Amino acid sequence: MDYKNLFSLKGKTALITGGARGLGKAMAEALAQSGSNIVIADMDVVSAEKTADELSLFGGKTLGLKVDVTNEKQVKEMVNRIVSEFTELNVVINNAGICQKITVEE
C-alpha cells in the first residue's frame, strides 16, 4: 500500500522498537513513505541496519540500532543518540516484544 498521499510526516523522526521485521517493519515502511526519518531499534542489529538501509530509499534519514528495550541504560543511550543525530523524536512505536508459543494448559 502507498501511504505517501495519506499523510505527511516529512522531516519528523520516528522510532520503531522491534522494527527489523514483521509488523514493526511494515509500520516503519509506512512512516518512511510518509516522509519520516526512521530509527529501527531491535535486538538483531544486522536486520535493523538492513531494514534501515532499505527504508532510506524513501528519501529520509535512517538508522538501525541494537537495543534491548528492557535495559534502561540502552534505552537512554538510544534516545540520546536519536536526539543527537536527528535533533528531535516525534513518533514512537513500541512494538518490541517476545511471543511464546505455549499450550493452553501451560
From TrEMBL:
Keywords assigned: Oxidoreductase
Segments forming a coiled coil: none
Keyword Oxidoreductase in record: yes
UniProt GO MF annotations: 4-formylbenzenesulfonate dehydrogenase activity; oxidoreductase activity, acting on the CH-OH group of donors, NAD or NADP as acceptor
Keyword Oxidoreductase part of the UniProt annotation: yes
Top-tier EC class: oxidoreductase
EC number assigned by the record: 1.2.1.62
Top-rank taxon: Bacteria
InterPro entries per UniProt: NAD(P)-bd_dom_sf, SDR_fam
Gene3D superfamilies cross-referenced by the UniProt entry: NAD(P)-binding Rossmann-like Domain
Family per similarity comment: Belongs to the short-chain dehydrogenases/reductases (SDR) family.
PANTHER family, alphabetized: 3-OXOACYL-[ACYL-CARRIER-PROTEIN] REDUCTASE FABG, SHORT-CHAIN DEHYDROGENASES/REDUCTASES FAMILY MEMBER
Name of the protein in its database record: 4-formylbenzenesulfonate dehydrogenase TsaC1/TsaC2
Origin species: Filibacter tadaridae
Organism phylogeny: Bacteria, Bacillati, Bacillota, Bacilli, Bacillales
